[in-house]
Amino acid sequence: MEHGLIHAFLLDGKGGAKALNWPEVREWQPSQGLLWVHLDYSQPQVQSFLEEQAAINPLVAEALQSGETRPRATRIDNGLLMALRGINLNPGAEPDDMVSVRIWAEQSRVISTRKRRLMSVTDVAEELIAGSGPRAIDELLSALLDRLVSRMSDTVDVFEDQVAEFEEQALEKQTPEMRAELGHFRRQIIALRRYLAPQREAISQLLNDKSEWLSRDTRLQMQETQDRLIRHIEDLDAVRERAAVTQEEIGNQLSEQLNSRMYVLSIVAAFFLPLGFLTGLLGINVGGIPGADSELGFGIFIGMLIAICIVQIFWFRRKGWM
After folding, report:
1. Which residue from 115, 124, 133, 301 puts its CA 20 to 30 A from 267's CA?
2. What structural domains does the chain harbor?
3. CB 39, CB 113: distance < 8 Å
């Protein structure tokens, strides 16, 4: 990466492209061909290029450097300003920590910016280097959208496998730790879906745009990409519901186990309550305790306690408490 310049390609219209450096990017003219520039907006040289040399609307320049973006597609002058998000597949990253890419598309040029690496953009760049990439600006946009959604497929499949494992574990053994893990899992799904839903709307806005340089075939490809995105959102909704049901089931089973233990303790407490009362009453150190001077007093008292136990057992069984 040269001072924030990640990729710069001059499309040849046949699926390939010529790589450009900073001086060539600055000197580019529409007559030379179709240009795609991918930049790291956190670099000062990129900020200077966008604000002073790119010849774009100041609002567009500001949006391309914005730190927080919500997926959208907006027409400004003769171009389209888009903010999209992709799955963070960088090592050690959480799937719900999505990476944003900002795109300014004109009839003969695309400027895209990011701060963190996005594998979907790298895929398109590698296709251009291999000579099998997009041939026009609209195809470039369609390819970027397609890779963003395609990269989500593996993550959605992983979520489905994880919730299946949780369901299997819930049938075998339930622990409080599982509830915490499920809670974290559900938060990941909710965060991921929160960005995918607006992205669906952004693609819809793009499809409804009247730009002449968006061909019919490209619109059909974008429509297919949108359909796949909708399926991913529906799959995430299903996974979220399954996780919620599993977490609720684990909570119910843990509550039943706790209630069962409390029930046993309650029975034991009720069983020994009269026995404890009698032994405590006859254990006080005052005169007049019945049987205190009799050799048979202890045996009679033990027999009385046994009789009370038998009566209690009979009574508990009759009430269905045991």
Report:
1. 301
2. 5-253 (3.30.460.20), 258-319 (1.20.58)
3. yes
